[in-house]
Specification:
Elements lengths: L1 E3 L9 H15 L7 E4 L3 E5 L5 H8 L5 E4 L2 E4 L3 H15 L5 E8 L8 H15 L4 E2 L6 E8 L2 E5 L3 E5 L8 E5 L5 H11 L3 E8 L6 H14 L5 E8 L1 H10 L5 H19 L4 E3 L12 H8 L6 E2 L7 H11 L2 H4 L6 H4 L11 H8 L4 H10 L2 E6 L7 H9 L1
Parallel strand pairs: 6-7, 6-8, 11-12, 11-14, 12-13, 14-15
Antiparallel strand pairs: 1-3, 1-4, 2-3, 4-10, 5-9, 8-9, 13-16
Helix pairs in contact: 3-4, 5-10, 7-8, 8-9
The structure holds adenosine-5'-triphosphate and magnesium ion.
Main location: cytoplasm
Subcellular location: Cytoplasm
Protein name: Probable tRNA sulfurtransferase
Length: 399
């Protein structure tokens, strides 16, 4: 039994949210063919029909838009059968000195017993058959929930936290600038958590960056994919732009101008693919390119919102999330991405917009952008896919 998250506050859009959530749940549980998903206005029911509940719950925990859920069993509307099932459930979880209570709700008022009677009948039966157990109304160790519905009586005793957030796809699409670092995968996760469908945009610069750096970005995408099933990955060749910028732009402005190109390309991709915003992994003050002055000088190339989900998080806080979502160990593997290699020794922490524009005007901006766009490759990455070559991977760890 699945309880919705913030959906309840969404008024008219509620049905869309529920339908989208049901769609996402079916997609992420597609490997369980017998599972049946029923999305009601107030709850969603997943009927297992023999599928493994532990495996289903593991996948379910990653679906955004779910507040929490309870593994439940359905019993015929026969009080004797309910007594036996309740007793079994309590015995399974019993420990010395355990307290409990029964909490009954009826959505079917035709049932012969009312809620108080059911509480008494079940409570009495458990007290009689489980020596040592006590009733406690406030904060018992075990709260046995009983729901009387037309189609049966449902028992549950556990509530498991869901991923929270909003169903992915209810907030439109955004292009996520994904590097191989720690921050951008976390930003991607947080964007998805607010319901945004993301497509990854990754810039790479062969031969300055290795195949493994590209593979690392793909594998990071695969780590985040369980939250949505699969994610589009767009690789954009960036070598010509970086070489040109390095050659023609004063070193203090290398980084600013490179970033302006990256953003232009991401914006073009958004326009072609119905993206409404650009997301990146910038955190305020973390490095030279992440000052407000720098953001002004880079953001200038577009009017599209550039959203930075980790902008106000400390590095420690970002790392904590990276560990929770399982991207951290991969992010810290030492494959250089394109920015590290072309990083100037002393980038300006307070670049000026007029200077950036002036230096950039010397370049064939349109031609560079056009050629990069001509070289893009788009693939679809599924959860759990691996891309890093094991041997090179081990070798890199020795470095
Ligand atoms: P991250 O840990 O995400 O790499 P960072 O702290 O290393 O971030 P930068 O290298 O300055 O910061 O990058 C800032 C942001 O620019 C990244 O979070 C990412 O969104 C984007 N970015 C940087 N390099 C790339 C790349 N090669 N491809 C796509 N986006 C990139
Ligand atoms: Mg980086």
């Amino acid at each position: 039994m699945v309880r919705y998250g913030e959906l309840s506050t969404k008024g008219k859009n509620r049905r869309n949210f529920i339908d989208r959530l049901a769609f996402n749940v079916r997609k992420s549980l597609h490997q369980f063919p017998n599972l049946v998903v029923k999305a009601h206005r107030d709850r969603m029911h997943l009927q297992l029909h023999g599928e493994d509940s532990t495996a289903v719950m593991t996948s379910l925990k990653k679906v955004f838009g779910i507040q929490n859920f309870s593994p439940s069993i359905r019993i015929e509307r026969d009080i004797e059968a309910v007594k036996e099932a309740a007793l079994t459930m309590v015995k399974e979880q019993f420990f010395e000195g355990m307290t409990f209570k029964i909490n009954t709700r009826r959505s079917d008022h035709e049932f012969i017993y009312d809620t108080n009677e059911i509480n008494d009948l079940l409570g009495g039966y458990i007290l009689k058959n489980v020596p040592g157990i006590k009733v406690k109304m406030k904060h018992p160790d075990l709260c046995l929930r009983v729901e009387v519905r037309v189609n049966g009586i449902f028992l549950s005793s556990q509530t498991i936290n869901g991923a929270g957030g909003l169903p992915v796809g209810t907030a439109g699409k955004g292009m996520m600038m994904l590097s191989g670092g720690i921050d951008s995968p976390v930003a991607a996760y947080l964007a998805m958590k607010r319901g945004v469908e993301i497509e990854m945009v990754h810039f790479f610069s062969p031969p300055y960056t290795s195949e493994q750096a590209l593979n690392k970005a793909k594998e990071l995408t695969a780590k985040i994919a369980p939250y949505v099933g699969h994610i589009k990955f767009i690789e954009v060749p960036f070598t010509e732009i970086q070489e040109t910028v390095k050659h023609d732009v004063p070193s203090g402005y290398l980084m600013t101008v490179q970033r302006r190109f990256m953003l232009r390309l991401a914006v073009l991709l958004a326009a072609k693919r119905n993206g409404l915003a650009i997301f990146n992994g910038e955190s305020l003050g973390q490095v030279a390119s992440q000052t407000l002055e720098s953001m002004v000088a880079i953001n200038d190339v577009t009017a599209l919102p550039v959203l930075r989900p980790v902008v106000s998080l400390d590095k420690n806080e970002i790392i904590k999330i990276a560990q929770e979502i399982g991207t951290f160990d991969l992010s810290i593997k030492p494959f250089e991405d394109c920015c590290t290699i072309f990083a100037p020794p002393a980038p300006k922490t307070k670049p000026r917009l007029d200077k950036a524009q002036e230096y950039e005007a010397r370049l064939d901006i349109d031609g560079l952008i056009e050629r990069a766009m001509a070289g893009i490759k788009i693939s679809e990455i599924k959860s759990g896919e691996t891309f890093l070559n094991q041997q090179e991977d081990e070798f890199a760890e020795l470095l």
